[in-house]
Amino acid sequence: MGFLAFIAQRIIVTIPLLIGISIASFAIIVAVPGDFVDAWLGKTMALTGQSRDELLPQAEALRRRLGLDQPLPVQYWIWIKGIILHGDFGQSYVQSRPVTEVIGLRLPRSLGLALITLFVGQTVGVLLGIYAAVNQYRWGDFLATLVAFLGIVIPKFVIALVLLYFLAFVWHSPYIGALYSPEYIVQDHFSVGKAWNFFLHVWPILVISIWAGQAYTTRMMRGNLLDVMNAQYIETARAKGLSRRRVLFKHAVPNAMHPVVMNMGGRFDYMIKGEIEIAIVLGIPTLGPLILTSVAERDMYVVSAIFMMVAALLVIGNLLADITLALLDPRVRRATVSGG
Fold first, then answer.
1. Nearest to 157, CA basis, from 146, 165, 149
2. Which residues of 17-40 are buried (b: 16+ CB within 10 A; e: fewer)?
3. Do residue 63 and residue 208 come from a single domain?
4. What are the DSSP calls for 225-278, one per residue?
5. Are 35 and 68 in contact (CB under 8 A)?
6. Is the model's pTM score more than 0.85?
7. CATH number of the domain where residue 112 is located
8. Sign of torsion, CA 131 135 136 141?
């Protein structure tokens, strides 16, 4: 029951955070002058040539039907109820279709790339951190530290710009600004060729995000492992005659992993933002370019939906990281449940 109580307690704590995120997302919508009906009115006037006075009765009827004539708390309740009950995030001003359709294809792509870079980046960072700690002050340690520091200090968009230059002007790559080549766009079934073609288009995102994602983890894992290796229980394990490998991987590494696991929830958000940033530079049709165009065109329902989803993913990622840490270390869940 202790572990179930821990999970229940962590879920309860996340509920106020999710409510706060929804309020902030709704504030993005109402902060911009005008609403969906104003956008509809402008488009209809341009398409039909009718005057504003002629369309005003229809506009007012539409505003009443959507609840936009209600006070802000009532509008928020209508909006959040639509999301909870129907998955309705509103209507895109620019594309004149539901927000879920606008981001429906791009969101899984961004999440998939972010998850791949998260797990690969964290795995690479952990392995490099272990290697650097075991080879402290040797060339391997200096090289791993250099790779980590470069990943930290060089902005991802700078790396993307440099890579874009080489792709376009040096290598003359045809795999720029799309997810598939023309022959695979209409193919609706999976094939090895289509998967490989997808990789040829998105590998810059993966490489840059993994490099940037492993950097902090490498430094953290190296420092944690060096601290753990000097702990008393490690000295005791060595005194019992355990092999160096057994001491390292059975006793030292699992305990040094705790801060890394705690950090994974925040790294997921970092990977999503990194994917968005790189995709904007490379013009790959994921969430990145969509956010840029939506902000430029003041399509605020799309912007608020993306903001809400990314923020909610950060909360959920931290929740999963807490649960994983509790699985690794029972002391965490016992302390949380008991209030210690």
1. 165
2. beeebbeebbebbeeeeebbbebb
3. no
4. HHHHHTSHHHHHHHHTT--HHHIIIIIIHHHHTHHHHHHHHHHHHHHHHHHHHH
5. yes
6. no
7. 1.10.3720.10
8. negative
Confidence of residue 332 (pLDDT cuts 50, 70, 90): low
Q: Which burial class, exposed, middle or buried, applies to 145 when counting CB atoms under 10 A from its CB (0-12, 13-18, 19+)?
A: middle
146 and 189 both lie in a single domain? yes
Q: Are 29 and 307 in contact (CB under 8 A)?
A: no
Cα 112 to Cα 91: distance, rounded to the nearest angstrom? 25
- Residues contacting 322, CB < 8 A, separation 6+: 10, 262, 265, 332
Query: What is the total count of domains within the chain?
Result: 2
What pLDDT, in 10s, does the model give residues 285-302? 888 888 888 887 778 888
Whole-Å CA distances, 190 to 186, 195, 257, 286: 11, 7, 37, 19
What is the rounded average pLDDT of the residues 181-209?
Answer: 85
Residue 129 and residue 82 in one domain: no
Residues 263 and 164 in one domain: yes
Last residue of a domain, one of 46, 68, 103: 103
Q: Among residues 326, 212, 318, 209, which one has the least CA distance to residue 266?
A: 318
Cα angle for residues 332, 336, 339 (degrees, 5° grid): 140
Q: CB–CB of 301/93 below 8 Å?
A: yes
How large is the angle between the packed helices 2-31 and 330-338, nearest 10 degrees? Answer: 70
Residues in the chain: 340
Among 78, 103, 128, residue at a domain's last position: 103
Q: Report the alpha-carbon distance of residue 238 to residue 55 in Å, rounded.
A: 83
The string over 264-278, giving b where at least 16 C-beta atoms fall within 10 Å of a residue's C-beta and e elsewhere, is: bbebbbbbbbbbbbb
Domain check: are 17 and 159 in the same one?
no
